Amino acid sequence: MAFDFYAVPRPDAQLEALKAYFPKFPPVDRRFKYVDFLGSGAYGACVRLRELSMDEKTSRDIVIKQAGTEEHRRELRWEIDRLKRIAGSLHIVQLLDIQSSPFFDFDVEKAALIQENPDMARDLRADYEKAGYLLGPMLVIELLENGSVKDFINKAKAHKVTRLPNRLIWRFFLCLVRACIALAYPRRAGNGQFFEVIPPGDQAPSDFTQTDWQTGNVMMGGIYTDQFEHQTSPILKLIDFGVWEDAVKFDLLYNGPNEKGVAHDIFGAGTVIFNTIALDPFLLSPWDTPGQYQIQRSGQTREITTLAVGITRNLDSPKYAHLDRELVSLLAQCLAPSPADRPPLRDLFDSLMKGVERPPEEYGVGVSDGNPQGTGPGVPGGNPPETDLAALELLQKIIYEAPPPW
Ligand SMILES: Nc1ncnc2c1ncn2[C@@H]1O[C@H](COP(=O)(O)OP(=O)(O)OP(=O)(O)O)[C@@H](O)[C@H]1O
């Protein structure tokens, strides 16, 4: 019999019910307050709640993710399990503990019965049973307040921003490579959070992989003045570690043949950076036709095949002429179809660290970078200076300000 796509139960109705649930049944534990429905993806839906501390003196915002069908609940259990393996990694969304469930409390039904109001008790129970699928697993994670990189790109476009300063791109790239380290060398914090580092020695990386690298699955957190890497740009964190159960069963945790683990994740990080530079969440596809690009590696010039041609072939255009060529070279290597042409994780990390440690006046100036365009400040037609302040102002505008209506 032919596969009937439409016969497969769709989760949308249940996810709609989750959307309706909290406005209808405010959490009975009064320490929780419903704030917003954040969105739904292929298998889960997320709501934002505010949780008061036990002494009710402080509060934090949390995200609850639930799934609408048994199959998707299995995926959610996998996601919880996978996130536990890397709990504490700063560039991965954090799991949170909550003291009680924000969902329906049978005491309410009991209270209605005690008040001898069986009609109310019956209605409550009927409504609750309709939403009964919500009893499945619940993922509780930190709120990442500044939306996804995909939202960021769309907002930048709405503000008519045509290019991003190098200093931001270097920092975003470093965040994603820290996330790659979290996956390559998974470890769990006892408590607290840690910057991901590559262990000394030649420990082989794991096969732990993010199977769905895309700008919608990279979220923006806050700017932290006490963290050098996040002082002038928001921290980026990976979300969405759900996996299709068959992928686990058949060991298919990758998106391409013979490829999983760190080489896959480096490529994934490259796709997100490519789309961020291009300010287009969908510009790059693994099915694009690759081209050649000359890179420097270990002091030697080499030609590699890369999928980054949308940028490497257009370095004369006003959109990309300002890019540090070293940054373009790293991106081109990450997007090499052949894993052997991608940079080793340690080299990539070291280059990005050097990139963010540059003196502020050295970004995008071209000359020190061997940039033939010489696009630096003072060059006729060159870039405006890329100061920290200018980058911060741009970020503020994109993230917080409403775009002009025209
Ligand atoms: N920690 C978070 N903070 C803020 N918003 C979040 C967070 N996690 C998820 N979201 C929002 O909720 C939406 C759905 O979440 P998520 O991507 O995890 O669902 P999914 O079903 O796994 O999606 P996908 O289709 O990518 O598999 C996301 O698009 C995102 O906008």
Automatic annotation (TrEMBL):
<keyword id="KW-0547">Nucleotide-binding</keyword>
<feature type="binding site">
    <location>
        <position position="65"/>
    </location>
    <ligand>
        <name>ATP</name>
    </ligand>
</feature>
<feature type="region of interest" description="Disordered">
    <location>
        <begin position="359"/>
        <end position="387"/>
    </location>
</feature>
<protein>
    <recommendedName>
        <fullName>Protein kinase domain-containing protein</fullName>
    </recommendedName>
</protein>
<keyword id="KW-0067">ATP-binding</keyword>
<dbReference type="InterPro" id="IPR017441">
    <property type="entry name" value="Protein_kinase_ATP_BS"/>
</dbReference>
<feature type="domain" description="Protein kinase">
    <location>
        <begin position="32"/>
        <end position="356"/>
    </location>
</feature>
<dbReference type="InterPro" id="IPR011009">
    <property type="entry name" value="Kinase-like_dom_sf"/>
</dbReference>
<dbReference type="InterPro" id="IPR000719">
    <property type="entry name" value="Prot_kinase_dom"/>
</dbReference>
